[in-house]
Design goal:
Order of helices and strands: EHEHEHEHEEHEHEHH
Number of helices: 8
Radius of gyration: 16 Å
CATH topology: TIM Barrel
Largest sheet: 8 strands, parallel
CATH class: Alpha Beta
Number of domains: 1
Bound molecules: 5-O-phosphono-D-xylulose, fe (ii) ion
EC number: 5.1.3.1
Strand content: 15-25%
Structural class: alpha/beta
Family: Belongs to the ribulose-phosphate 3-epimerase family.
GO molecular function, one term: D-ribulose-phosphate 3-epimerase activity
Helix content: 25-40%
Number of strands: 8
CATH architecture: Alpha-Beta Barrel
Organism: Jeotgalibacillus marinus
Shape: globular
Strand order of the largest sheet: 1-8-7-6-5-4-3-2
Keywords: Carbohydrate metabolism, Isomerase, Metal-binding
């Protein structure tokens, strides 16, 4: 069963608690939290305080996507704030293996993220060490962008590697996922779908989640 991870980037921040409760009630699997630093990406969003605030109000997995330079500087803070998964961009950390070890040292699952132009080759040697691989299907930085279809072959490649190696990392995709693109991603091998505007951009969040799920034919 494919997991759905609504991204709160597109939520109404004036009532964030209600937004999280609503998607939990609508059977979301993860809450996806986009952390941006204005350096790695041209946007600034939220930090550990927001995760700390959300932690007590949901039992869903807090899936934290760090779009920050040198994420190793903040792993401890995000772990203490209550993150369940911390994903770092391969493009943002010099010592990726050490950063993964650091994440695990706090008892948190570690993910690695690939920008649309970054090949799987860049993470080949850490695949046995990570719990999740996140394939960006838009350039990171903003919600509501269009799905980049050339990334689909990368999802397929990753699925094939997973099959060949029998490693058990999850394959997550992020960016431009909607009822129009979800099935394409799942057919290619996606196991977790992040959706921001396709969920929180709709008046009825529950109907939006149902629509995405019903578009998947697996
Ligand atoms: O990481 C990011 C953007 O950098 C995402 O998680 C977005 O928040 C997804 O938004 P939509 O493309 O689904 O609107
Ligand atoms: Fe994200």
């Amino acid at each position: 069963m494919v997991k759905l991870a609504p991204s709160i980037l597109s939520a109404d921040f004036s009532k964030l608690g209600d937004e999280v409760r609503e998607v939990e009630k609508a059977d979301a699997d993860y809450i996806h939290i986009d952390v941006m630093d204005g350096q790695f990406v041209p946007n600034i969003t939220m930090g550990p305080l927001v995760i700390e605030a959300i932690r007590p109000i949901t039992s869903l997995v807090l899936d934290v996507h760090l779009m920050i330079e040198q994420p190793e500087r903040y792993i401890e803070q995000f772990a203490n704030a209550g993150a369940d998964i911390l994903s770092v961009h391969v493009e943002a950390t010099k010592h990726l293996h050490r950063t993964i070890q650091l994440i695990h040292s706090f008892g948190v699952k570690a993910g690695v993220v690939l920008n649309p132009h970054t090949p799987i080759e860049a993470i080949k040697h850490v695949l046995q060490d990570v719990d999740l691989v996140l394939v960006m299907t838009v350039n990171p930085g903003f919600g509501g962008q269009s799905f980049i279809s050339s990334t689909v072959s990368k999802i397929e490649e990753l699925k094939e590697i997973k099959h060949q190696t029998k490693l058990d990392f999850e394959i997550e995709v992020d960016g431009g996922v909607s009822d129009k693109t979800a099935n394409l991603c799942v057919e290619a091998g996606a196991e977790v779908l992040v959706a921001g505007s396709a969920v929180f951009g709709k008046q009825d969040r529950s109907a939006a989640i149902k629509l995405i799920r019903s578009s998947i034919t697996e």
